[in-house]
Amino acid sequence: MSILSILEPATSTAQRAAVTRLTTGSIPATVGADLLVPLADGRVTDYANFDHGASAPCLESVRRAVEAALPSYASVHRGNGYASRITTQWYERARAEVHSFVGAREDDQVVFTRQTTDALNLLAKALPADATVIVFESEHHAALLPWPAERTIRLAAPTSSTGAVTAVADALRQAPEGPRLVVVTGASNVTGEIFPIAELTAVARAHGARICLDAAQLAPHREVNIEQLDVDWVALSGHKLYAPYGAGALIGRADWLNAAAPYLYGGGATSSVTADATVWNEGPARHEGGSPNVIGAIALAAACAAISRHREAIEQHERSLLARLRTGLAQIDGVTTYDIFGADADRVGTVCFTVAGISSTLTSAALSAEYGIGVRDGKFCAHPLVGHLLQDSPEHATAVRASLGLGTTREHVDRLVNAVRTLATQGSKHQYEESAHGCQPADDPRDLEAPRIW
To answer: Is the pTM of this model over 0.90?
Structure first.
């Protein structure tokens, strides 16, 4: 179902036209593609965004969909007013769009959440009381931490795809009887490497276990199909899918969710409340208590529709840029890149690296202040994995992550490679110090105060 169908009930031609899909075969346009940023030497340059792994910029088509929905925005599900009826249809059609985007089974539920973290915490609350969870320590904290500690088997970070499958198989053989859930990332948020999802699912099935896929880093870059992969649940975030309006989703089997207590107690989750008893809804409403984030759901659906339409062009764009980036960094003395499964592993557009003699904090600060490049430094909410990757590098406790996407160009890649080469060979042009804004040049002339925009 296209996002265009969200606007079918509306009578305004202008509203429908506002979300007309792009007709070219190019990648979708992003808001802020023309963003200019100041440099420490007084110059201004366009922003080179290599921080898509944290939050991706908004798609222009998403912005148009939101702008089209706002004039008639209202509460959903229990209003007979025109605006409420229209908004309710958009909300439920957004649910259908997300369902289609991940190739869900007919009876799978789509529960709107705040983001992947919220979705996985919802599933954790819905676990049967005797369920055992198996998870790699290489997971993002969102997938690593929500599960009951006393019933969670935490596996060491794998070093190969085959080793990952073997480790899960061994853990399942040794796990207690009862329900079991394997939790696995689709693509590492640290290295971008894609985990062997189909093989892990096959192992889970062979041992009567279920599997949940954290697709936060995978869904923006590669197709995710629940039915083909045979996973039980998928969790994803709008803000990584070019829809930064505060919505995510948990998509998958209904039985555990319908048997669990509501995630949020309140209006919308109930079918009946009396002095003596409360009857809770089944289905998505059971866990969507309170007024839902309708605009976030519409934005997420619009992003899903755009990415689905342009999937081939998106993958080609990102593969080309990633190959150029990895080749360029590999040719710089003193730069070390890090992998879980090895240099030849399939991956999305993320590279984790360090520069000899320069801390990751200084590297990211210099890339920003001197070259207008945005990267991420630290442990990326995956502390055990980063510790594992850097265990043979006593010089570095943290790393730099460059994650490309639709807001990245070939010139950006060349600028990043050349900037890293200059830092590795000549060092930074300025002295840096810690400030309220983080690490920045001691003589920084830039005005980094953000004025009110309201």
So the answer is: yes
Reported as half-sphere exposure (CB side, CA atoms, 13 A), residue 204 has a value of: 26
**Confidence (pLDDT) at 78:** 81
Interacting residues of 395 by C-beta distance below 8 A, sequence separation 6+: 354, 356, 357
In the set 58, 212, 381, 439, the catalytic residue is 381
pLDDT digits (tens, 9 = 90+) for 242-278: 999 999 999 999 999 999 999 999 999 999 999 999 9
Rounded to whole angstroms, the Cα distance separating 64 from 243 reads 11
| 381 catalytic residue (yes or no) | yes
* Residue 397 to residue 389: CA distance in whole angstroms: 10
Please, what is the Cα angle at 172 between 166 and 176, to 5 degrees? 155
Mean pLDDT, residues 213-238: 98
